[in-house]
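User: For my dataset I need records formatted as: sequence, then structure tokens, nothing else. Please produce one.
Assistant:
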Amino acid sequence: MAYRDNTKVIKIGDRVIGGGNPILIQSMTNTRTEDVKATVAQIHELEAAGCDIIRCTVPTQEAADAVKEIKKQISIPLVADIHFDYKMAIAAMENGADKIRINPGNIGSKDRIAAVVSCAKERNIPIRVGVNSGSLEKDLVEKYHGVTAEGLVESALDKIGIIEELGYDNMVVSIKSSNVMLCAKAHELLAERCRYPLHVGITEAGTLWGGNIKSSVGLGIILNQGIGDTIRVSLSGNPVEEIKTAKAILRTLGIREGGIEVISCPTCGRTKIDLISLANQTETLVQNYPNLNIKVAVMGCPVNGPGEAKEADLGIAGGIGEGLLIKKGEIIKKVKEDELLAVLKEELDNWK
């Protein structure tokens, strides 16, 4: 049985994580939260892409006040991201945040932490306790002779204990690092000692190219061990790309169904159509069909193309300036190259 099947069930707005519930995808806005219009527009874009939970930074009272207005215009749970100022955590909850993310280590005294917990308890709002390798306590760095998985876990358990001692257990836990293997080891160690659902991600993973690789490897290792109840792919770029990658990771691991998987060949000298362009256009096209759970193949030549395309639900096998349309293993018709994308779209529009 997977670790995630036994974690505590936590309600975030109208969604739940933990206890074997589906793994939910999160992202974070990169707008100024104070700019309600821009923030709402980005959240709508993320929601359309498949985001289940959104996080917004709340560094000012104006941002905390904006939470109330943002909440009126969105339909997915909103998490307030808090650092340093405990008053912002309280203000965000008073304005309707569905969850708060804090690092008790940088909030301040235990009295301040207690004030945050008291407000969360009154409203039954979950707290995500976040620990990051970049801000690991100096005494733990010294104890373990550097930033280590063991140090991250000890820090997380310490923060969990602080909140438990205040009589609250409505928590989600995250331990993040940009070091993939360290992060994976930390999750393995923590999963054995923590009953709370885990928010998993490789922090500061990098650009769209490098970050996707690091996130895919790291999340793949962790999730495949049955660890993780909600995930975020962290990329330096449009956060919509985070959602696309997260969905692809879950689908590739067989954890979540839904969405079209596109397979395409790497091309070679035998390819007689502009396969690279067609494959990229197809990848963009299929984003419009989030509820179709099928495989689409875009293949470039007659060597492996027809066979691969027949194994997919829908496929194109390229020829000389043309391609075969193959559906559920059967050749349907021959199509001119410049009509291939339109024909694929027509098939998807009418898929049965």
